Amino acid sequence: MAMNEDTGAASKPANPRGLPLQASFAVEPADNRTGYRTFKAGSFGFRRDGYFAHISWPNGRHQLAVDVFLRALMRDVAWGFFYGTVNFDTVFGTTNYYGEVEMFAGATNESFIKAGTAFIERFKADELMRIFKEMIGDWTNAGYDPFAAPMETGAPWGSKSGDNDPAVSRKRVTAKRMVGLPGDTPLRSDASGYPVNRMFADVPQDEPEVYAEPGFEHEVSAFNLFAYLSRSDVTWNPSVCSVVKESLFCPTSEEFILPVEHGNDRPEWFVQLSDEIIWTTKDRDTGAFRAQVVCKAGDVCVMPADVRHQGFSDKRSMLLVWENGSPKIPELIRSGKAPNVPVKF
Amino acid sequence: MSGYSTQFGSIDAYERGTVSVIADDPKNYLFSNMFDVAARSAPYERVAVAKNFEYVIEVARAEGVSGWFTCAHDEFVTCLDYPCEVHLVKLDDPDAAVDPESEGAHALAALPPGKKMGRIVLRRGHMAILPVGAAYRFEAAAPATLMIQTIDGPVTSHQWAAFCQSK
Ligand SMILES: [Fe+2]
User: Fold this and answer.
1) pLDDT tens string B34-48
2) For chain B, what is the HEC assignment?
3) ipTM field
C-alpha cells in the first residue's frame, strides 16, 4: 500500500534474521536472441525470455509467467517495497524493513522452510530499487502496461520490442491532507488525462455543493471520491487521499487479480466502496489456506497481521484500503506486544 | 455498449458478503457492513466499524439535525448514499472547546462563539474535510450513511459483537 514518504526514515531498520547487506549489482548487455538484459542483485539472477521471468540463486531456480512477474514487480516498485512482505507468487518476494529490504526464494513457502532450502539476502532499499526499476523498464515492451487490467492492455510476450516508460514510471499519488485542497493532490478530469474508466461509465460525476463564506474558501472543501476513483488509470495501486496523522485512506480501483500475495506486517483494513472483491487469505509465514472473504459494497473487514491476502475483482470495483502508517507497528507485532487482530469481541 | 452496472449500497438497500473459513475463525476478520450498522443505529451515534491502534473509522446514521462536534485534529466525512449537509463554524477559541492534545470527536453542549465558515451538501461518494479548529454539525432530511475517518474518542461507540460476523 501507499506509504507516507517519510515512514521508517527515523530509526535503524529492524533486522530480525541478522543478515548482512549485499552490495553487488550488475546489469548485463542485451541478450542476442531475446533482446532483454539480465540483472544480478547479490546472489540472485534475473533473466526474461518470451514467456517467462527466470530467477536463480545458489542451488535453486524458479520461473513465473512474465505477465505475472511484471505486474508484481510494478507494484513492488510503485509502492517502494510496501508494508511487510510482497509475495510475487508462492516462492519469490521481498520483505520491507523500511530503508533495507530482504529478497527471498522460498522464505514464505512451507516446503522450502521444512527442507531448509529457503534463500534470503538483504539489501539497501534504494540500491535494490534501482535494479528493479531498470528491470521493469527493460522488460516491459511497447503496448504493454503492467498497471492495467488484462482487457485494457496489450500482451507482454515475445522478444524485446520497444518500451513503455511513461506507464512504468507513473508517480504514486500521496495527498498530504486531502485530495482537492489548495496545494494538495489535484482532482482528475478528462482535461488532465484521466477519463472515466469503461467499467465506471455509469458513476455520477457531480461535485459536492460547497458554499463557503468569504475568507473560508480554502478551508470549506469537499470532492467526489467515487468520481475520482472512476477516473483512476491504474489497478491495484492504492493512493493516499486523506490523512489523519498516521491514518491513511488509500482508495484504489481493482480489476482482475491483485498481482501479489500481500503479507502485511500490521493489520490492514478493507472498505468495499462498490461492487465485489473476493479475497483469499493464507498463513503469512507458510502459505497454508485460511479463508475466503467475499466483500460487497459497504462491507468492511480486516486482514489480520498474520495472513497474506490476494483479491479477485471481475467487474472493476472501488476499494478503500485503510492503513496505519506508524513505523512503530511492525516491531510491536513481531514482539507480540500488539495483537494480529485489532479488536476482540 | 459497455453495459457495466456499478453496484453501490445504501441504508435501505444493501447486500452483505461473507467470510467462509478453511482453517480460521471468522471473528478474526471483523466483518461487517456499513449500511447494516447505519440501519440499526440511532441518529448520529458514531459507531466504530474499523480500528487500527488509536485510529478508527466510524459509521453514523444521518437523520435530522445533529448536535455540534469539534475535534483537536482534522477528520474526514464521506457520504455513502443519500444527501447530507455539513455546517462549519470557525471557533474563536478552539482550545477552550476541546483539549488541543485530545483525540477523537467531542460533542459540544452548545455552539461556542465563532464565525460561520459555510456549508457543504454531500451526495453519494462525496468526501469533505472537517478541519481542526472548526465546529461542525450534520443535517439530513432522510436517513443516510456517513463514514468518518478519525481517532477513537469520547463519542466513539464500540459494539462489535452486535454486527460483526461471528461464525
Ligand atoms: Fe494489502
Assistant:
1) 999 999 999 999 999
2) CCCCCCCCCECCECCCCEEEECCCCHHHHCCEEHHHHHHHCCECCEEEEEEECCEEEEEEEEEEECCEEEECCCEEEEECCCCEEEEEEEECCHHHHCCCCCCCEEEECCCCCEEEEEEEEECCCEEEEECCCEEEEEEEEEEEEEEEEEECCCCEECCHHHHCCCC
3) 0.98
pLDDT per residue over B110-150, tens digit each? 999 999 999 999 999 999 999 999 999 999 999 999 999 99
- Give me the residue spans of the domains in chain A: 1-170, 173-345
CA pair distance A20, A164, nearest whole angstrom: 35
Residue type present at position B132: V
Q: Which residue has the cell 474526514?
A: B76
List the single residue in B22, B150, B161 with the smallest CB-CB distance to A244. B150
A28-85 per-position pLDDT tens digit:
999 999 999 999 999 999 999 999 999 999 999 999 999 999 999 999 999 999 999 9
Using CB atoms, which residue from A208, A244, A342 is nearest to B126? A208
Give residue A10's pLDDT: 54
Instruction: Say if residue A1's pLDDT is above 50.
Output: no
Q: How far away is chain B from the Cα of A283, in angstroms, using its nearest Cα?
A: 10
Q: What is the pLDDT of residue B101?
A: 98
Domain A173-345, CATH among 3.20.170.30, 3.30.70.20, 3.40.50.150, 2.60.120.10: 2.60.120.10
B40 touches chain A (CB under 8 A): no
Please state, as a whole number, how many other Cβ atoms lie within 10 Å of the Cβ of residue A277: 24
C-alpha A237/C-alpha A250 separation (Å) is 9
Q: With an 8 Å Cβ cutoff, are A244 and B74 in contact? A: yes
Q: Take residue A39 and report the three cell numbers written for it.
A: 540483472
Query: What pLDDT sits at residue A3?
Result: 47
Q: What is the rounded CA–CA span in Å between residue A110 and residue A118?
A: 9
Q: Specify the pTM.
A: 0.96
Test B126 with A224 for CB contact under 8 angstroms. Answer: yes
Question: Which residues on chain B are in Cβ contact (under 8 Å) with A280?
Answer: none
Residues B45, B148 contacting (CB under 8 angstroms) = no
Task: Output the CA A261–ligand 1 centroid distance in Å.
Answer: 8
Q: How far is the CA of A284 from the centre of ligand 1 (A)?
A: 12
Would the CB atoms of A221 and B123 count as touching at under 8 Å?
Answer: no
Q: What is the DSSP letter of A139?
A: H
User: Which domains, and CATH codes, for chain B?
Assistant: 26-160 (2.60.120.10)
The beta strand positions in A42-153, using DSSP E, are 44-48, 52-57, 60-65, 85-87, 92-96, 100-105, 119-124
